[in-house]
Records
---
Amino acid sequence: MDCYGKYLHVRSDAEKKARRRKILRRNFIATAMASPPFIGFLLFTTLPMIISLAISFTELHSYNLSLAKFTGFGNYVEVLRSDMLWTAVLNTLYYCLSVPLNLCLALFIANVLTRKIVCGKAVRVILFIPQVCSSVAVTLMWQWIFEDNYGVINTVLSALNIPKIHFMTDKNWFMPAVLTISLWQNGTNVVLLEAAFANINKSLQEAARIDGASERRVFWSVTLPGLTPTVFYMVTMNLITALQEQTVMQIITTNGVGPGYRALTLVYYIYRMAFTYTSTMGMGMACALSWIVALIIIIIMRINFKLGQKWVCYD
Amino acid sequence: MKKIVCFLLALLLFTPLLTACGGGSSNNIQFWVYGSSDQLDMYTRVTDAFNDSYGKDHGIKVDISQKPNGSYGQTVQVSSTSSSGPDVFLIAEAEFKSWIIGQYFCPIQEYVDKVTDISLGDIMPTTVNRLRYNVETNTSHVDDPLYGLPLDTQPTALYYNRTMFEKAGIIEISVDENNLDAWNAGEIADNNGKMKSDFPALNGITVPKKGYYRSVNPYYYDGDRTRGWIKPDFENGEVAVFNNRIAMNWDEVEDLAMLFSGRYNPKAGEENKADPVTEFGTQYGYFTEWWFNYGWSVGGDCLNDLTGSGEWNFSLLDPNPNYVVMDGTFTGRTGTVYNEGETISFIDKMNILSVDGKDEVLVPDDYGDYYHADKSLGKAGIWEGIQAGLDAGVLSQLPSTRDAFSRYLKLGAKSNAVIDGENGLDISPNPSTFSARTSMNYFFSGNLAILAQSSVYMADLSEEAKARGFSWDVAPLVVYKEYEDPSDPDCDTVKAQGKQAGHSNSLSMVVRTGSEKKDDAVRFMMWMASEEGQRIRASIGFFPNQKSLLPEVEFKKGVAPGNVRVFSEALEFQGPGDWWYMPDHVWVEKWCVDLNAEVRNGLMTYEEWYSPAIKRTNEWLQQYKKYSR
């Protein structure tokens, strides 16, 4: 014991106290530093969610919460009875076509970019620019492109003596036009897939080629399975975004709902319930639909993850 | 240093939390405004004048605070429950009723009644009555509670391109109907200082009392079919005169519009193009975004209150004729006395039976017509007293609201679209084609010859016209007018005439429900709406609410056209648009979304559209009775 005694130092009470104080101070500072975002999360995410859930059981046509009247599940029943809800669901699903379309286009472009092409870097920058532009500005730009009288497309069609296409007023053309905007803003997907392409195990591809596999076979059997984790991530994120589409629809329409209510997606319908259809629907119904939409997204994501287990290759 | 940076970073992370904090309170009246630079300048000037005069004498000080246009409404709404919001704020009529239901502002009649030292003068009822609302019954009768006072009202009129008219060979005159005989006799000059002798082409011609006169082949609608339009033959002596002091009738505006429509008068080489233009560069002749002018002119409306107490029904497709008093007075079914020029209301023209001493409530069907409460009695039809009025020559029959509406629809419908059995005229752009530009932009770009729009665009248009080198003026909105013989170009004897009608936009002042200075706030509002306040507005080019002040409006140099008084005159009869009728506009979407996108583009027939549209709209109108208030 003695021979080790010089190495041992038994802390005095004062030292222990000082150390505890130091730890406490350090914890306090760490907690203080971490608390603003946490408080922000509580105040601006958790609390609104709780309030929204509470409002969904009331009738409320104002920002003034004291005017809310309890209606039980009345709003949920009204929302599910609303004929516009099913229009909004169909429109949202239609818009979700942007997910596979964007994915295929991004896959094609990323595949091309992995090869040595002229001005590859410039092409990448050009492809990514739409992604960093404001959605509002991009939508307004496309609104001009699709314009009936002076839009680029219709000007060209007129010059060719082809009847104009009323992109914004013909319900058959409206959604394809909106999907085009989404396709144009595909930069992030391309970048992610290009990175995924770069991470594919080259030795596996080489081995397949040595075994006599064609380039197509290599792509389908080696490259694509290697991309599936990224593709799965993209499907998940893009699907959530598509299910929440509102900005483009709100800006691009002139009458607020598009031709034949084509612009009315679920989230846009929530917005209109709260702020446009305030008197006949109002905040209560908007909150109820918000929770229904949240539930729909959770179910779709659950299905997505279940299916993902069957096709995503993490090896 | 590190600690300071950490502290600042932490503070930065807290900043979002600070956004919820409001400003402090003040003893002064807080007046929140938004608008264009001209409007903001006007609000400031009138407020300053109040502070220097009435406010100073009564110890009231008003602080004016400008808010961003885009978020004004939300800023005010959010402040409704706080102690630091505005005392007085502005409200557009589209939000008026929904904000009352949301209790963002309060009734003011009791405060107005207390004020005895401010007079509203001869304020026009059309500007005040739209600010009344009974929340319980969802009605706006003259005895319903008053919620605000008018500040800025913007009437509508027809803007037209004078340069284009001149190029087309149309003679433009500006002679009031009462002065036309004297002008024809060469005794007086018109409002532009032109004598008849200044127009050699008018030698030997007596210009009739018409908004648009063609000496040969005037276009007219004969009730069964649309007669083919014949282009004016100016080379062989035909004369066309446009008088901007007389409202055109429906035939005249269509006739004029066809001259400027590529479909009827294409430039050489444009004949076979999909969207031809005229030699004047126009694609279309005439555009009005609103049906009101047509429907109201014959005495119809898009909503009828079947009981007078909020039993609203969609009536735009009512097939029953309307009636106007042509001579003397007429007493309607309910005892209401109508004077010359007034149209008979729905409740007075229909054959409503008395059941147990009470009027029955008519039952609307899905085709626009009305049945007796006891459906076995069949359609209600027209009250027998109306026939007596017609026989006595007191009343004249006018088109039904449905006819007026379909006439309006035909303007912008494509030629392949069939509206109530007749093809579209395609002389107007479809309102929904204005996706990236406004109709005014379309007008000053030279695509359109005549446009119905609000007075608010005058300043913008004068600048654009200057830059683009064309001149413009305004004329009254069109009116229903039937001549004894429409095929005779010189016949101006009127067989039946509807009333002048149209809509004006209004921005009003209201008092926030939570304000603790309501008495002073109402005093300030009353002063702003009074002759004193409105005179200041008039002096800087804003139309006042008092009839007696209308001649005093002074515009900035070059802003106002020669016939600007058309706007002043319109203020007296123009009311709010259909966006004001109900607390929100879902009911409008129920009938107009398919109409604009499908029917007008020929993708759906009128017959396919109207019955489901009536059903949907009437069903939705029931919703306005459901929610608690």
---
Amino acid sequence: MPGTPYLPSKPRSTPSSDELRARIPGWGADLDPKDRPSYPRERFDPGATGAHWEFPERQEEKWPRERSIEHEFLTPVFGTSTPPRGLSGALRKYAYATYSEGRAAHWLILMGADRVDAIESHLRSFATLRPDNPITETGVLSEFSRGGLSSRVGRKRVDMSHTWIDPILVAGPWVLAGVVLLRLGRRVSSARG
Amino acid sequence: MKAMVYRGPYKVRVEEKDIPRIEHPNDAIVRVTLAAICGSDLHLYHGMMPDTRVGMTFGHEFIGVVEEVGPSVQNLKRGDRVMVPFNVYCGSCYFCARGLYSNCHNVNPNATAVGGIYGYSHTCGGYDGGQSEFVRVPFADVGPSIIPDWLEDEDALLMTDALSTGYFGAQLGDISEGDTVIVFGAGPVGQYAAKSSWLMGAGRVIVIDHLEYRLEKARTFAHAETYNFAEYDDIVVEMKKQTDYLGADVVIDAVGAEADGNFTQHVTSAKFKLQGGSPVALNWGIDAVRKGGTISVVGAYGPMFSAVKFGDAMNKGLTLRMNQCPVKRQWPRLLEHIRNGYLKPNDIVTHRIPLEHIAEGYHIFSSKLDECIKPVIVPSAS
């Protein structure tokens, strides 16, 4: 005789509620949806939040703050971390000013700007007393102190199939930049010689 | 002050930055006493979230002590020990007035599709986060709460996101008495979602991952049945077998954008950023849930498109429920559960790392070294 779902009965493999109540601390404490704080999903209660304004005072805009064109105006409060600068900043401002969030171009340009930002920032760091250091900044030395090998070998981790890509993604651009600089240096010295 | 600073994909360091200032009358400046690295911080760390700027300080899970308040702040004062929800929200817009704090419309100029989140890229508002010694907290009368004296720091810290999100994920599943719940992902949110499913009367809770040490934690911490998907040719077929070929009533996706289990999906999203996220767990969930069942998504995905099996979801008549967690809504009930001994949030904390060593912390968590489940960051000033 077939069982569920070919028949109307529930699955046979579920323990009884009494058994679960005895075994699991707090089982069923929120059985009644009314005890669940996100039920119902929307509950109109503007007095519950602690806000003592209908519309918040506006934060001062100290530079032209980039914003989604799906907003009617600049939100009254906003983050002020890392203002846009350089080529990456120009790309970001263009993406916000030109494309809505519904357009792939908006996000693709922002992602491209992130890559440009990383390059700009690495280059900029070389003009400071604290240039970027891919060894310390990747934390890769913890591979030796926190069981890099034992955390992976014999563990059936499926992420091992693509872990090899990470060093290429991280170190690849640095190696490439080194090769380019080396070749440029050789060309310059041979042109002078 | 010392602060974690993003230096490009897979690279962070600690830098000296200016202590944040009051920029709005309802701001507070909080001295951070504990912070955490969230699994979703790894999406930023891996360069997956658009408009993640070099120089930004991450960290949306933190607690601390109020250092300074703006002139309109009424509910907090200097010296208060506070926990801060990961949501930045105004408390008064259309969405906040209806309890959708994570969808606030007054705090994120960069995007209308997502609210404000501390230290989570400009796509989420451009706010510096709490993996630092000090942080600016907007709308101090709305978001933060004074930590009850009886609540331990680490438990309070975990309420700011991971615990609340897991609990919220179980609620999104609309669990009825006796339901079979499958949780994909045995990270912190998955552990809490599994544990919370029992509170809502689940009959079976099954957790799926490929990291055996995390599955062991799901067995002991969350009383769950566990399956390592790496041991099965097709985990969906195994789930059908385990549910008498019905499928689960509810599936919770607690994995999000970097889901593993399909090389192409993972690499195209996590490595080459061609999708908003790898929908492997979500697609397995769509297949493993029963017809008419519910999928709850609390794993984080980027704003770009992802290759989700939407046709199957439609044909099966599924209900897909999802959101960023409105954290503060969860707190009164969660505090009751902690006080009653039903939940002990910091049982999942595995690493306590000084802020100065945060680069190692990110690498350990990202590479799943040393059986890491939840790393906590300790700023030196605390």
